[in-house]
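Quick one - inputs below.
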Amino acid sequence: MTQSRPAVHPVDPPPLTAAAPPRVRLKDVQGMPGTGGGLVLRLLQFIFAVISLSVMATTSDFSSVTAFCYLVAAVGLQSLWSLILAIADIYALLVKRSFRNTVAVSIFTIGDGITSTVTFAAACASAGITVLIGNDLHYCNLNPCSRFMAATAMAFLSWFAASPSFILNFWSFASE
Amino acid sequence: MTQSRPAVHPVDPPPLTAAAPPRVRLKDVQGMPGTGGGLVLRLLQFIFAVISLSVMATTSDFSSVTAFCYLVAAVGLQSLWSLILAIADIYALLVKRSFRNTVAVSIFTIGDGITSTVTFAAACASAGITVLIGNDLHYCNLNPCSRFMAATAMAFLSWFAASPSFILNFWSFASE
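Output:
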């Protein structure tokens, strides 16, 4: 029992497998719902859609052209949708939370896809008719061409502001 | 020197950290580039775009309307793009590989986004003018309305076939 004690200094075992690294997620890119950039995009969509709606609705004879009626309906839908999501963004900013659950992001993505497609289709149809009246037939003395052009341009701007929202939402949904 | 040798049986160290688990990837969903479904989508886009192009280009007076010229250019671009990607799909199917590198998928996504947006815009503009001529002004006795409608409908069908390609490519790109 007086044997020397073994003088082995075992190497510390390597640490156990660390927890799996957290999934890489897109950070809160400005422009996503619940961020300041997202709110700015929503407000731009809303403002451009409302300007387009009011300019087109105050022309005297928009109701005689199907595409212009469709434009009024489309930018009306776009302005409603953008207003609702702007309110949701303001709420999210006030409580300092961001929308991180899949159901909300999927609803936002689908809604953004539908409204931006409808707005873009209406803007294209109006642009086709405005160019037909103005450039091809030269009827601008009979029609308020400048108002048609302004309403169409505002609808396109609303769509431009809606596209980043849709793409960022879709990206965030796909990378969940 | 006759002391007993230490009889330590060290515990095997735990295995080193296993390789990180492979990233979860969307499997080869039918419709992605390099799959049979993707090839079918490309061929549908190509066929509808070519029908739209030939129907519109054989009307006598399409060149007097800007939107119809734009439709011809847009479905021409769509048919070229779809043909090139159909050939790439056929090659990928023959060598039994799928497109899995980020550069190819990003080029496909951007190209699909541009061509499908251009086709959709042209189809909407043509639809607006066709409805204006047919329903609002009742000029169908003077114009080949049925040909305009057929070309517009084919352009919309080409866009319908292009949308799944774009969405699946974008999804695959975002979840890389």
